[in-house]
Design a protein that fits this description.
It is a single chain. By secondary structure, this protein is of the alpha/beta class. It folds into two domains: 6-173, 3-Layer(aba) Sandwich (Rossmann fold), CATH 3.40.50; 181-226 and 254-374, Dehydroquinate synthase-like, alpha domain (Up-down Bundle). 44% of the residues lie in helices and 17% in strands. It is built from 15 helices and eleven strands. The protein has helices at 44-49, 51-59, 80-93, 107-119, 133-139, 177-194, 196-204, 206-213, 227-230, 233-250, 265-275, 284-301, 307-319, 331-339, 368-374; strands spanning 6-12, 15-21, 39-43, 68-71, 100-105, 125-130, 144-149, 152-159, 164-167, 351-356, 359-364. The strands form three sheets. The chain has a seven-stranded mixed sheet. It has a two-stranded antiparallel sheet with strand order 7-8. A two-stranded antiparallel sheet has the order 10-11. The protein is globular and about 60 Å long. The protein binds nicotinamide-adenine-dinucleotide and zinc ion. Residues 186, 265, 284, 288 line the site of zinc ion (ZN).
């Protein structure tokens, strides 16, 4: 391994899954690829914005790079039609049972590519190269793959851990500010649920974060000038990956501790779904930021969480240009959306409520009236 690489090992469902973090992590791809050469499913944004880097990482295991399918990134790529297209391409190439699929892209591309790998020939080798902040610290770690179907998000999928997850922050140079903010919402969540040092480090960098991402920092759809050298991203990404790895190692199939990862997500999913398709949609990260801010307010009001912690979380979200408030949906709409939350079990929604940093109640109750008090 490269001298500066860090490795995080997991065994998920009996399968080794190793995250390699480093400046040139992607160039170590070939270590995870047995014969025959792999096929690559590549996010169109990466193919367009980082062609030289893509060529360098592919050339290590497959000099002619003939087996490359470039696919549009983003949520619209997680449809059944896209999966059908991928299967047709895998069939055309004759990818065998001992073949390997390498996914290179954002979380959406990795979800669909991983699901294709999980199901083609009842499961072929799978290696991922996440290229957004959110994919690096969340989507690529933990072995869940999936697509959207029947109008529902992520309800069809498979557990299929990647043998290798190559995390290389160099890809983030072209990530638009909105993508950074989405990843930062999940990074703050990871810090809150599992790493007080990461939280303090981000807090100590509040001014830097605000300058790069805060309200008015610059256009949401443009890359962030000077971002990679400005803050210790590699350390922070490693810390956030470690938080998720630690949780999924203990609870691969989401029976218990993995629910901690849902902090801010129960309300977040409802708000994201409510605003989808409107002129003013909320991204996943924005919705989760509001969801976290609201559960902190509820926990403080109940005397279950110190006010100071809630204020610190709010300030960090704000410094990253993430919203902490939102208009309330109509009551019946809010209740309908919450009831549809996939985390609903035993006839009720289980809320993750904070008690402080690294302290959570994984089985809380929140009434609609509590939510409405803290929505505008
Ligand atoms: N499997 C899991 O455990 C898990 C966990 C969290 C999220 N997810 C999924 O991840 C998805 C969200 O992932 P995301 O936030 O990466 O969004 P995304 O995959 O939709 O990517 C956002 C946009 O960024 C582009 N992009 C990718 N890499 C880029 C780069 N380096 N530079 C510039 N643009 C780039 C993509 O083409 C896309 O247009 C959702 O579908 C969500 O369901 C899965
Ligand atoms: Zn999330």
């Amino acid at each position: 391994m490269n001298d500066t690489s860090r490795i995080i090992e997991m065994v998920l469902g009996g399968q080794p899954s190793r995250v390699v973090l480093g400046p040139l992590a992607a160039l170590e791809l070939s270590r995870f690829i047995p014969q025959p050469p792999p096929v690559y499913l590549v996010d169109e944004a990466v193919a367009r914005l980082q062609p030289a880097w893509l060529a360098a990482l592919q050339s290590g295991c497959d000099p002619d790079r003939s087996g490359t399918l470039v696919l549009p990134g983003g949520e619209s790529g997680k449809q059944l039609e896209r999966l059908g297209h991928i299967y047709a391409w895998l069939a055309e190439r004759g990818v065998p049972r001992d073949g390997t699929v390498v996914g290179i892209g954002g979380g959406a591309l990795l979800d669909v590519a991983g699901f294709a790998a999980a199901t083609w020939q009842r499961g072929v080798g799978w290696v991922s190269v996440p290229t957004t902040l959110l994919a690096m610290i969340d989507a690529a770690v933990g072995g869940k793959t999936g697509i959207n179907a029947a109008g529902l998000k992520n309800q069809v999928g498979a557990f299929h851990p990647a043998a290798g997850v190559m995390v290389d922050c160099g890809f983030l140079v072209s990530l638009p500010r909105a993508g950074w903010r989405d990843g930062l919402a999940e990074m703050i969540k990871a810090a809150v649920i599992g790493d007080t040092e990461l939280f303090s480090a981000m807090e100590a960098a509040t001014d830097g974060l605000r300058g790069l991402f805060g309200p008015g920092a610059g256009p949401a759809d443009e890359a962030v000038a000077g971002v990679l050298g400005a803050l210790p991203w590699r350390d922070w990404v490693a810390s956030a990956v470690a938080v998720k790895a630690d949780i999924v190692r203990r609870d691969f199939h989401e029976h218990g501790p993995r629910r901690a990862l849902n902090l801010g997500h129960t309300l977040g999913h409802a708000l994201e779904a409510w605003r989808a398709g409107t002129p003013d949609p909320l991204s996943h990260g924005q919705a989760v930021a509001i969801g976290m801010a609201v559960v902190f307010r509820i926990a403080v009001e109940r005397g279950q969480c110190p006010l100071t912690v809630a204020v610190r979380v709010n300030e960090l979200l704000d410094a990253c240009g993430l919203p902490t408030r939102c208009a309330a949906p109509p009551v019946n709409e809010l209740e309908r959306l919450l009831a549809a939350d996939k985390k609903r079990r035993d006839g009720r929604v289980r809320w993750v409520l904070p008690r402080g940093l690294r302290q959570l109640d994984l089985d809380g109750d929140v009434a609609t009236a509590d939510l409405l008090r803290w929505l505008d």
